[in-house]
Amino acid sequence: MNDTPLAPDDPPASPPKKPSFFSLLHRAIVGTTLIVLIVVIGYLGSIFYREFRTLREAQAGESKSTPIGYEGLSPKFSYAQAPDPWLQEKDGEARLWCGWDPRLGQTWFRFNPGDLSELKLSRPIYWGKDGVRAIDYPVVEREGDPRWSKVHPDDEIAVLDLNGIVSYYPLIVLERVLIVNDRIDRDRSVVVVRSPREEAERTIRVYDPVVDGSRVTFGTTGYIYEHYLLLYDRQTESLWKAGDDGLEAVAGSRKGVKQKLTARLEPISWSRCSAERRDARLIVGDKRTSPIPKE
Q1: Residue ranges covered by each domain of the chain
Q2: pTM value?
Q3: Residue 219: enclosing H or E segment and its boundaries?
Q4: What is the 3 state secondary structure string of 24-83?
């Protein structure tokens, strides 16, 4: 028999010591310091990011605000007050106010009663007839000309390709004139219309301006009709709605005539279109030294 005494059991573990006050204080200080550092770094980071973004925007703005020199785009200001009513019937005809002439006084578009619905017609805007003057004598530049290189890369351009002849219409130009009566070459003409009350990608429309075998130019009336720009033709002063399915005469001697929609243009950036076609025509303004055409 083995008389060796058994080893006593291991003594129970002593309870953990509570951290001292100074240990807790040290941990609190370290944790608080880390939190403060994270907050400060985040705050300074946001400041630096805003300053960096502001700098980049300023640099982009400086480049974009470089004068391009578009010419002949200013509206014709008039402070004439439209009469009340501005759409009226008198002596068996309807007439729509179109502005004030120092020699003639109030001037009017005249047509048959019932041609226009007042419910579909806006109030007079854009300073009346030709207050926003259409481009009638386009100033055209090509690659290498002074203003070609000044167009900002992000500027939006409406591109028209008519049988291989490409024309560029800067959106900023279209927004100021609304209508471009453009003769592409000796035999081909178009009228380009920018409606001011619709989304940009849907509003640049190109129409055939040849009516009864002769080219007609168009001007602004100062009105919107059925949400579309209302034009007038210089030959007869008939009123035309620049719609999705064509340019339609809605009042005047040509009422019912419709010119087909040639194209609907979607703007693209200048950096893209200028790289694709360097032989294009860039419309940069209007020769305002010439009078408004009579037809």
Answers
A1: 30-65, 128-286
A2: 0.76
A3: strand 218-225
A4: HHHHHHHHHHHHHHHHHHHHHHHHHHHHHHHHHHHHHHHHHCCCCCCECCCCCCCCCCCC
